[in-house]
């Protein structure tokens, strides 16, 4: 009945719709050479001068001309590399139904079966920071990094609103606003919130598993002569999770069953984790002369973590028998903060971009349970980057940094019309949490060696007519890897692990209105430290869908099936008190294909999604599937989402 009602409602809505706003291609202003960069900035300045004082401009049909083509955004990394690229607002439908962060990653994160829950990458990923980090990364995917955000250039006030109403009372809301104070100065604000009801054993309608409130401010300014640029942003996230600990296994409690969802028996009812983050970010540069600029980056980051559990309840059965601090209550507190200052010179010379810098990082980890409450660190880096754009299709680049006295990262990229190759060699520090941690249930003080990694990636661009093929291969060598073992204690592997990961991506048209997209990744791990990594041997995402305008080109529609699959493996389990995933050898997260039915459509500038999760529920030998030991995946339910733009 739900599926029939969905189709009827959708058809009715489409019949009533009209006036499709045609989608425009994304413009690219500026190139990798100095002349192109200067030309790009001149074009932008000329466009702004022409539009100054014309905010009420109307066309012949009395419609305002402001829209996605006049509201542009750019990224800091392109400003830093002298590659100003102005991008129109996204009105594409592709993957719009994958709205939440884990789905947006194309399911390359392992979570706890619900939006807002702890998550980690399925595949080994290189750290962005070779220096010390907090080590608490379970909620990184939900934080909006101010250094990677969009900065706007708007010709009129711009508002973007998006709402997601998930089945089972899983709701998200995102609102962004930006406007130009004058042609060279833009300001904006973002607000994001989520309220995600428990999918396992909710006590009432508003019994939330995850609650988040986040907001951000941002601004960008350039001087009248174009020599000075300033980008600034602040981001704050308060992410609270009412932990459930997973379903009590039937072998522990014979009355507990796995696939009863709202009636499931769970471990934790009185435990909560909170991750509060605040980050200030400033980038500014000044042009000293032709082909030479001075720049400075300032970051102030703070991450405050709390985990609380009342042990005079049944929650105590979930944890080990250690009670190092308090027999009745677990209250773990950790506060990590850092300052980062980077100063450098950059510019362009004969088609090559260059950059050299000095970076200072100062920070500390604080816990009331440390012998010395403040664990401070000071790090000094030197680094640089060189990029040569030989033509539109050929490019080489190299960058690296050295953390005095011993850590380093070297990275190189080669891009050609038929082959891309990327190589990274790094030696990075274990995290602060891995080195020193004191809580009610766990404590350690380690002096681990640095972790080494070599990674090479190669991608062949083998397009055949309308078929887009990308065979690729990733090779990893990792030594001294630090992980959490089956006893939930941090450990360092004594040997090396070697990963061989061939994969293929393919996109093709089937007829004029159907498309097939697929990605298959095979992973083989060998070496003494192979058991420290838990990655499925086979990983696949496939999408088959109808893609075409309908109703006299008034509505653009994508409708089809999303399928994903992971082969059986002993996936890492999750410990809420540590806020870490750890090894386990008893629970096999078995292979299970998942099919989602989706319908995305756009009317004017408004996009709407319908998604029916786990379409094949009840059709398989297994009753359902797991994403993490003792955490079941979604049951069948319907999601609805909508996104729209306002340009005045």
From TrEMBL:
Residues 31-56 are annotated as: Disordered. Residues 1-22 form the signal peptide. Pfam families: Porin_10. Keywords: Signal. This is Porin. It comes from Algoriphagus aquatilis.
């Amino acid at each position: 009945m739900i599926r029939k009602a969905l189709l009827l409602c959708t058809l009715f809505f489409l019949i009533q719709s009209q006036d499709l706003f045609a989608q425009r291609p994304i413009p690219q202003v500026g190139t990798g050479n100095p002349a192109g960069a200067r030309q790009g900035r001149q074009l932008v300045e000329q466009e702004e001068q022409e539009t100054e004082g014309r905010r009420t401009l109307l066309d012949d049909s009395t419609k305002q001309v402001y829209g996605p083509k006049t509201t542009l955004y750019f990224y800091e990394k392109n400003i830093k590399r002298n590659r100003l690229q102005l991008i129109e607002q996204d009105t594409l439908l592709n993957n719009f139904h994958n709205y939440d962060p884990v789905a947006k990653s194309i399911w390359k994160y392992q979570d706890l079966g619900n939006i807002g829950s702890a998550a980690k990458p399925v595949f080994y990923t290189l750290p962005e920071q070779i220096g010390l980090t907090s080590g608490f990364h379970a909620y990184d995917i939900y934080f909006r990094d101010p250094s990677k955000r969009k900065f706007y250039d708007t010709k009129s006030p711009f508002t973007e609103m998006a709402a997601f109403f998930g089945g089972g009372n899983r709701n998200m809301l995102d609102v962004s606003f930006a406007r130009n104070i004058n042609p060279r100065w833009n300001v904006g604000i973002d607000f994001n919130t989520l309220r995600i009801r428990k999918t396992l054993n909710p006590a009432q309608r508003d019994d939330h598993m995850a609650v988040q409130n986040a907001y951000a401010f941002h601004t960008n300014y350039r001087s009248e002569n174009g020599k000075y640029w300033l980008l600034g942003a602040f981001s704050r996230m308060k992410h609270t999770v009412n932990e459930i600990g997973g379903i009590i296994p039937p072998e522990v409690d014979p009355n507990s069953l796995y696939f009863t969802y709202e009636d499931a028996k769970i471990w934790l009812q009185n435990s909560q984790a909170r991750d509060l983050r605040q980050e200030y970010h400033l980038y500014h540069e000044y042009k000293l002369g032709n082909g030479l600029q001075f720049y400075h980056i300032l970051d102030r980051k703070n991450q405050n973590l709390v985990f609380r559990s009342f042990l005079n309840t049944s929650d105590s059965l979930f944890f080990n028998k250690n009670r190092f601090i308090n027999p009745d209550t677990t209250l773990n507190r950790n506060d990590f903060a850092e300052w980062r200052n980077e100063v450098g010179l950059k510019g362009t010379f004969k088609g090559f971009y260059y950059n050299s810098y000095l970076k200072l990082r100062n920070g500390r980890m604080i816990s009331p349970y440390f012998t010395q409450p403040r664990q401070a660190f000071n790090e000094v880096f030197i680094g640089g980057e060189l990029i040569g754009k030989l033509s539109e299709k050929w490019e080489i680049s190299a960058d690296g940094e050295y953390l005095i006295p011993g850590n380093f990262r070297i990275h190189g990229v080669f891009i050609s019309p038929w082959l891309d190759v990327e190589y990274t060699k790094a030696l990075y520090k274990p995290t602060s949490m891995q080195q020193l941690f004191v809580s009610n249930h766990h404590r350690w003080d380690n002096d681990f060696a640095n972790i080494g990694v070599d990674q090479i990636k190669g991608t062949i661009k083998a397009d055949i007519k309308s078929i887009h093929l990308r065979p690729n291969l990733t090779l990893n060598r990792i030594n001294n890897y630090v992980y959490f073992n089956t006893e939930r204690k941090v450990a360092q592997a004594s040997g090396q692990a070697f990963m061989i990961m061939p994969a293929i991506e393919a996109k093709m048209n089937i007829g004029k209105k159907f498309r097939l997209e697929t990605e298959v990744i095979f992973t083989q791990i060998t070496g003494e430290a192979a058991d420290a990594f838990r990655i499925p041997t086979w990983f696949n995402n496939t999408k088959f869908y109808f893609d075409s305008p309908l109703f006299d080109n008034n509505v653009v529609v994508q409708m089809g099936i999303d399928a994903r699959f992971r082969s059986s493996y002993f996936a890492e389990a999750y410990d809420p008190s540590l806020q870490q995933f750890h090894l386990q050898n008893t629970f096999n997260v078995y292979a299970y294909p998942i099919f989602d039915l989706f319908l995305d459509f756009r009317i004017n500038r408004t996009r709407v999604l319908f998604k029916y999760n786990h379409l094949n529920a009840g059709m398989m030998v297994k009753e359902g599937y797991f994403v993490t030991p003792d955490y079941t995946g979604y049951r069948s339910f319907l999601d609805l989402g909508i996104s729209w733009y306002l340009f005045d």
